[in-house]
Write a structure and sequence with these properties.
This protein has 454 residues and is α+β, with helices and mostly antiparallel strands. Helix 1 packs antiparallel against helix 4 and helix 4 packs antiparallel against helix 5. The longest helix has 67 residues.
Length: 454
């Protein structure tokens, strides 16, 4: 092997190893992020469904409450109550059912053939005693039960989440349920989309890797030492694109939550408000359950918007880094425990997207560390627009730590390393000053060559 081949091999081998490690790290991080975000979305879906079910059952009980509270137990009164419940539905697969506490079906608007049958020993395909579980939950005062039941619209077995309550004097169990196969389908679609995004990212990395290998090979053949700086710059570009792909994925999921789930909740909220207005115009009493339903819809809407904002704050893309940091500080202070203030030094101007994203994530990570570890009472964020760059400082009055000890322990300081890597990827520097009992001061300095006027 001649000298040129050895030089090329020495240049290419470490680069190949580094790219493989970067690819594996990116794949692991993206899949971990995808799984956590999927779990978060599924939890939000289930919380929304539970809130809906509780509201539906509360509405059904309120319909028969006047008859029940009248103290009448005669067959005519009970038949009227069953008739009222049978008239309620919400969509092709939304209905109510009534059983007595011995498991006999008293009313089932979608499967009338079950009325009069005793289904105490009925079990689903997984061996769960469906009616026994529902009745047990009703005897406890009401609650949720997961089981399988035949879906009226398709006549196929599907997973279902039910909510039941009891009318003790009549010995009744009243309940309803929502089928969960649409959530399973949505999660599968999300899995496919995440896998596609991961594959796309890996292809980008492979393409950039091929380009970098070509550049390094040419540098080795030409024995041009200046090409070393070129390859280093390309690796930095690769790191930026990896981070940008993660930010794009976060932004995509944030848009999906805002444009999909959020709009559905707003639509449901408007329908409830319209119903309340109609009752008020007709001088009819507004059932308290509608107020509860509206409150729970508002809570779900706030939670979805909070998740969407944490994934990718819209202020960062619309009003810039200064406004996003002010909102982040206000939100952090509202959570309680630590007072947060934000200061802007110099006339604000628009920054390159990668600079805005990196500095915002650094501030997020720093505030997370303050919340978890600092035991601070106050934290101060200062964004300084300087003639040749931009600086970000985060200071707290907490217990501090020993940076040298953190750097030597591979199991600790992951947040600090992430901040340093983010700032280094955009050509900046990160300095950390901390002492035991004297708080912590973090400063990120980024030179900004090309700036866009605000």
């Amino acid at each position: 092997m001649n000298l040129r081949s050895k030089i090329v091999a020495l240049a290419v081998a470490p680069l190949l190893v580094a790219l493989v490690l970067v690819s594996l790290a990116v794949r692991h991080q993206e899949r971990d992020l995808a799984q956590r975000e999927k779990a978060l979305i599924e939890k939000t879906y289930m919380a929304q469904r539970r809130s809906e079910l509780r509201s539906y059952v509360d509405l059904a009980v309120s319909i028969v409450k006047p008859l029940y509270d009248a103290g009448l137990d005669d067959p005519v009164t009970r038949e009227e109550a069953l008739r009222r419940l049978a008239a309620l539905d919400y969509g092709s697969d939304g209905y109510f059912f009534v059983y007595d506490m011995q498991g006999r079906s008293l009313m089932h608007s979608r499967q009338p053939e079950l009325v009069g049958q005793t289904l105490w020993d009925l079990r689903d395909s997984q061996g769960r005693a469906t009616i026994q579980d529902l009745i047990a939950r009703a005897r406890e005062g009401g609650g949720f039960v997961e089981y399988q039941w035949r879906k009226p619209s398709s006549a196929q077995l599907a997973p279902k989440l039910g909510y039941v309550t009891s009318l003790p004097r009549w010995d009744w169990m009243v309940g309803t349920g929502l089928y969960l196969d649409d959530i399973d389908a949505a999660m599968q679609a999300l899995d496919r989309q995440m896998n596609t995004n991961v594959t796309t990212t890996m292809l980008w990395i492979a393409g950039i890797a091929a380009l970098c290998l070509g550049v390094v090979s040419a540098a080795g053949l030409l024995l041009n030492l200046s090409e070393h700086r070129v390859s280093e710059a390309r690796l930095r570009l690769l790191a930026r694109q990896v981070v940008q792909s993660q930010e794009d994925e976060r932004a995509h999921l944030a848009r999906e939550l805002h444009d999909g789930t959020s709009q559905t909740l707003v639509s449901a909220k408007l329908l409830v408000e319209s119903g309340v207005d109609a009752l008020e115009r007709a001088h009819e009493p507004v059932p308290p359950v509608l107020g509860k339903a509206l409150q729970r819809l508002n809570e779900s809407l706030v939670e979805v918007r909070r998740i969407s904002h944490r994934l990718r704050p819209a202020l960062l893309d619309t009003l810039g880094l200064a406004a996003a940091l002010e909102h982040l500080g206000a939100e952090f202070g509202e959570e309680g425990g630590v007072a947060a203030s934000v200061g802007i030094v110099g006339p604000p101007r628009e920054l390159p997207p990668e600079v805005k994203t990196a500095l915002f994530r650094v501030a997020q990570e720093a505030l997370t560390n303050v919340r978890k570890h600092a035991r601070a009472h106050r934290v101060r964020i200062v964004l300084a627009f300087e003639p040749r760059g931009v600086g970000l400082e985060i200071s707290d009055d907490g217990i501090g730590f020993e940076p040298a000890a953190i750097d030597l322990d591979p199991r600790r300081g992951i947040g600090l390393r992430n901040m340093r890597e983010r700032v280094a990827a955009i050509g900046g520097t990160l300095a950390v000053h901390a002492d035991r009992g004297r708080g912590t001061h973090i400063r990120a300095q980024v030179p900004v060559v090309a700036e866009v006027a605000a």
